[in-house]
Amino acid sequence: xxxxxxxxxxxxxxxxPDGARxxxxxxxxxxxxxxxxxxxxxSSSRSQRSQSVGTVIIAGLANLAVAVAKAIAGVVSGSAAVxxxxxxxxxDTTTELLLFIAxxxxxxxxxxxxxxxxxxxxxxxxxxxxxVTFVLGAGFSIYQGVQAVQQRHENLDPTVAYVVLxxxxxxxSVSLTRSVRQLRRRAARWHVSWLRVARRTPNTTIxxxxxxxxxxxIGLVLAGVGVGVSELTGTPLWDGIASILIGVLLLVVATTxxxxxxxxxxxxxxxxxxxxxxxxxxxxVPDLRSVDRLxxxxxxxxxxxxxxxxxxxxxxxxAEIEVAADEAERRLIARNPAIRYVFLDxxxxxx
Length: 351
Hints:
Elements: E1 14-15, E2 21-24, H1 41-77, H2 80-106, H3 121-151, H4 158-190, H5 194-200, H6 204-233, H7 237-266, H8 272-283, E3 288-300, E4 303-312, H9 318-335, E5 339-348
Parallel strand pairs: 4-5
Antiparallel strand pairs: 1-2, 2-5, 3-4
Helix pairs in contact: 1-2, 1-4, 1-6, 2-3, 2-6, 2-7, 3-7, 4-5, 4-6, 6-7, 8-9
């Protein structure tokens, strides 16, 4: 799902060299309040971006504190699983830093050399973050687990490990709760479940934080079970197995995020719900008989480009086509402020 987008100040309704009508909407252009927000597109965009930055900062600080505690507990207890969780938290902290960079660089305004802005650069940094999780977190965890299984040191002291794992679980739960709350607000826009928004949102920052926090909670459970079973059986074998499972979990998360960002870097269309809204609004425009071709492109986490080849009634005058084109632009932007650029190519089909 797309979110309300940032919109620089440009004159709407400009015709390009090919005669296509284009618009880059501004703060007041959407015609006042939208059905889902009491603010205009620009303020809504700033609010969404601020929420994303806040989510990343809170998740990063939580991961940093948890990483230090886990590392100390891992050394003291001798648990491979807890040390793997420390590496997990270090990887998550690095990822949050990269996601913060993604948000800052992706939010830069368009320039003459980059007329559609830098939104897709955020996907590049998010992809790098996925690679970091893959190499730093998963690689270390699997290696540590294999070493523990092979060597089987009999020096586990789980007391400190249990305390740190419980405290870490609480900290990660706070971060996850914030991510879910933000997704619920976005889901209200589409009247769908927040899980569906999480699967389909082009905002990889929120998706990455959600997956990382969820994986962190699962990893903590795996570490706790590994330490507990090792204590009960008197062998560290299960602690090593838990460490390997944590590494596999991180591999799944990294692969999921990498695949999602690659699709967005290549140039993924807006979601079906967005396209359906566009078609619905265009169908209500007077004198617009049909949509010959509709193309959308996700320019960034909160920016959509729409290019439409529309067919007007044969008896429509030039003035009526102009009015209808303006109406189409107004409807699309008012319905979804994430639509940042609109290019209309009006034609008259001859039967």
